[in-house]
Amino acid sequence: MTNSASGHVVTFGEVLLRFATPGARLTVQCDALDMVVGGAEANVAAGLASLGHDVKMLTRLPSSPLGDKARAALNAAGIDTAHVGRDTGRMGLYFLESGAGLRPSSITYDRAGSVFATSRADQFDFASALEGARLLHLSGITPALGPGGVALAQAAVAAANSAGVPVCFDGNYRALLWDAWDSDPRAILTDLMQSATVMIGNHRDISLLLGKAFSGDGSDRRREAALAAFEAFPKLQLIASTARHVVNSGHHRIAARLDARDAAHQTSEVDVTGIVDRIGTGDAFAAGVLHKWLQGADLVATAQAGLAYTVLKHTVPGDMCLVGPEELEAFSASGGDVRR
Ligand SMILES: O=C(O)C(=O)C[C@H](O)[C@H](O)COP(=O)(O)O
After folding, report:
1. Which pTM value belongs to this model?
2. Ligand 1 centroid to 58 CA: how many Å?
3. CATH code of the region 8-13+39-59+124-330
4. Dihedral of the alpha carbons of 152, 157, 161, 167, in degrees to the nearest 10
5. Model confidence over 123-142: pLDDT tens digits?
6. Nearest CA owner, ligand 1 atom 8
7. Which end of the chain is more exposed for a tag (fewer CB within 10 A), N or C?
8. In this predicted structure, what is the pLDDT of residue 167?
9. Would you state the pLDDT for residue 219?
10. Is the CB of 291 under 6 A from ligand 1?
């Protein structure tokens, strides 16, 4: 099955290597770490490619065995890497100390000065990657990298605007990155959001953008925030978010919510137990939503696909959700028993 008949999707951002403590070990207990390839925009690319979409990733990697490893993982996920530039320099890394029970996982970044973070906008061929594209997906992680990252994100959305390609922007607020420099995330993210047709983010992200608290309860508060975002961002057509209640690190309750200008839909909550890997579940949600949105599905089907894809990702180790469309449909229809 292919979903690419009428054009491809471009994702733009940094690809990272993740080093995770195996099992629920503390870093101090480990002699070896599990290495996988990830990064928010690569994860969305991998999800969409696995779901049958034609996806190009626009990024830059080091000319080194680490860069080769990252590119090979993108290719293995079915992502077109023709627009992946290579240069001397370092690979962005992050370290994950895996949590268990009431002890949450924690992340340490080691990505300052990476090939991607030190790239200039003129080192990317945005125009050719975006030619004939249906969507550009990027996230708040790129501008959080520093002034150079802000310039990259601005150049990407400017190129999408001039090519008439809709933009999906995932707020992906990473305090560790924004707090590492003299940043003004509100001003920077608000400016980028002016170009967004789809936003992945919840009422807290909208509060950050608009500098305003929303007072209602549950669904009312989310609707109030969404309406304020639609007023502030004229191009915006869809806001997608999850409502996540964390019981412990292995057990979350999750619902998916979509807000359009004239309607909203929130799914019922799913009990997600036995969580294998929570990292990348937000990106899987984005991929599930975009998968249906690109097909022109209604809010109910789009929210269900986002929910199902993120729930499935909680069972898949690594950053990327490589589950295909048949498994997604079968899972949505049947729940979790063995298929024989
Ligand atoms: O933090 C970053 O900069 C990364 O890109 C690492 C991870 O790949 C994403 O953070 C996963 O994001 P979630 O899907 O929200 O769990």
Report:
1. 0.96
2. 17
3. 3.40.1190.20
4. 150
5. 999 999 999 999 999 999 99
6. 39
7. C
8. 98
9. 87
10. no
Residues 144/176, Cβ–Cβ less than 8 Å: no
- Per-residue DSSP letter, 323: -
The interface predicted TM-score (ipTM) is: 0.91
**DSSP letters along 90-158, please?**
BPEEEEEE--BTTB--EEEEE-TTBTTTT--GGGS-HHHHHTTEEEEEEETHHHHT-HHHHHHHHHHHH
pLDDT digits (tens, 9 = 90+) for 228-252: 999 999 999 999 999 999 999 899 9
- Between the alpha carbon of residue 214 and those of residues 154, 165, 240, 304, 339, the distances in Å are 28, 32, 17, 26, 44
Name the residue among 316, 309, 259, 256 with its Cα closest to residue 287. 309
Dist. CA 123–CA 133, nearest whole Å: 20
CA of 282 to the centre of ligand 1 (A): 8
Antiparallel, parallel or unpaired: β 264-266 and 16-20: unpaired
**Ligand 1 centre from 74 Cα, in Å?**
16
